[in-house]
């Protein structure tokens, strides 16, 4: 690597793409709005890496170790942490919305078709029983084509167990998967060279299409969500640090590239390959990373969960409806269940918020009002989702004694502090 490359890090390049894209979209909105295809192309290039990477690394981890009891413990501990983290996220959202009252004083005309939008969203509530049934793929090729993480993990776990039981011939498959994984990480490196351009295009499109003026009426809501996410990230990092002894300041520094990429693109999937690479360089074993991270994308969307509780109360405040604390606690219990099935559902957060608002007698038309700033809030939610899953991976790895605070510190000094 040349001296010039060292001066301009990937993080700096992504940040410059973010800032320059916003300026370009603001100054030249007509041209900025036309850059969406360029941003979409970058996201698609990253998403094409995810399926072969998850499949190869997970098969390698399961078949390579053959310890199926360990896999069961890993899944159980991951689910326990997911439930704890999402519950804290719900309470943080509830706390902030009751302190800041972002919905009080908001006076924005409701669009004419808001009722139809809300009704459609409320109807699409998530059926948890069917959701669990759908975890089992009928066609693994179709599941891969749709990028369904849970179906992919379900099949790959069974496949990995099968490979582990075929004896000596398993070595061929494991070695092939190892080569595929290494190739996919190399492809990730190539694609990330285009990250600044892709992010420039996406931010220019967002600002050019919607304008910065959209933030003014709902600035308090955006501010409340950002504050809630900062508070939650602090609580999560502090709790995980106490449990594991890991310095999460170093973890944040190591993850700055995938976190900034996820924030800029508002796409958790776009940051997944890079986040997995950084976690492995922090000393987390590959089989832990490849199991916990994709599973978390379905069960541990902390940012989206936090936003759900905040948005429902925001709607009540906006319409001046008395939403008692006991009703809010009941709403939390509802969201604890409904938010577990939102991954992979288009417009998932809006669907859950609409369904919850309607069930508590709140006018779901208020959703149409917050859609104008949803992109800005989605960026923060995505950042939180990624950090939450990375934190879960670190914690579960320590619970399984797969890594220690000392080993992670050594890995950090070796790979990130040179």
UniProtKB/TrEMBL annotation:
It is a multi-pass membrane protein. GO terms for biological process: dicarboxylic acid transport. It is found in: Cell membrane. The chain crosses the membrane at residues 12-29, 41-66, 78-100, 149-167, 187-219, 225-249, 306-325, 345-373. GO terms for molecular function: symporter activity. Keywords: Cell membrane, Membrane, Symport, Transmembrane, Transmembrane helix, Transport. InterPro entries: Na-dicarboxylate_symporter (IPR001991), Na-dicarboxylate_symporter_CS (IPR018107), Na:dicarbo_symporter_sf (IPR036458). It holds the Pfam family SDF. GO terms for cellular component: plasma membrane. This is Cation:dicarboxylase symporter family transporter. It comes from Selenobaculum gibii. The lineage of its organism: Bacteria, Bacillati, Bacillota, Negativicutes, Selenomonadales.
């Amino acid at each position: 690597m040349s001296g010039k490359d060292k001066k301009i890090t990937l993080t700096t390049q992504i940040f410059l793409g973010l800032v320059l894209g916003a300026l370009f979209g603001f100054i030249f909105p007509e041209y900025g709005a036309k850059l969406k295809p360029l941003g979409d192309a970058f996201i698609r290039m990253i998403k094409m890496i995810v399926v072969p990477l998850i499949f190869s690394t997970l098969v390698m981890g399961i078949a390579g170790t053959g310890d199926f009891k360990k896999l069961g413990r890993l899944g159980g501990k991951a689910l326990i942490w997911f439930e704890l983290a999402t519950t804290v996220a719900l309470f943080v959202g509830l706390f902030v919305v009751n302190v800041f009252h972002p919905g009080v004083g908001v006076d924005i005309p409701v669009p004419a078709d808001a009722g139809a939008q809300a009704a459609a969203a409320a109807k699409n509530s998530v059926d948890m029983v069917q959701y669990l049934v759908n975890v089992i793929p009928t066609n693994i090729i179709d599941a891969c084509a749709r990028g369904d993480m849970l179906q992919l993990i379900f099949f790959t776990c069974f496949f990995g167990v099968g490979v582990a039981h075929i004896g000596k011939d398993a070595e061929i498959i494991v070695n092939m998967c190892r080569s595929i994984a290494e190739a996919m990480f190399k492809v990730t490196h190539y694609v990330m060279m285009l990250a600044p351009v892709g992010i420039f295009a996406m931010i220019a499109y967002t600002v050019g299409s919607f304008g910065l003026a959209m933030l003014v009426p709902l600035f308090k809501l955006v501010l409340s969500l950002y504050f809630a996410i900062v508070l939650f990230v602090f609580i999560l990092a502090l709790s995980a640090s106490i449990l594991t002894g890991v310095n999460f300041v170093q973890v944040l520094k190591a993850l700055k590239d995938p976190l900034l990429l996820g924030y800029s693109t508002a796409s958790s999937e776009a940051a997944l390959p890079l986040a997995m690479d950084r976690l492995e360089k922090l000393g987390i074993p590959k089989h832990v990373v490849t199991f916990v991270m994709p599973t978390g994308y379905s069960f541990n969307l902390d940012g989206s969960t936090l936003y759900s509780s905040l948005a429902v109360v925001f709607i009540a405040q906006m319409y001046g409806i008395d939403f008692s604390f006991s009703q809010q606690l009941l709403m939390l219990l509802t969201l604890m269940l409904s938010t577990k099935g939102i991954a992979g559902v288009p417009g998932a957060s809006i669907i859950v918020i609409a369904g919850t608002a309607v069930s508590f007698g709140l006018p779901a038309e208020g959703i149409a009002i917050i859609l104008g700033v949803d992109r800005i809030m989605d960026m923060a939610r995505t950042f939180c989702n990624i950090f939450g899953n990375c934190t879960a991976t670190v914690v579960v790895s320590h619970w399984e004694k797969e890594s220690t605070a000392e080993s992670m510190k050594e890995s950090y000094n070796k790979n990130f502090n040179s």
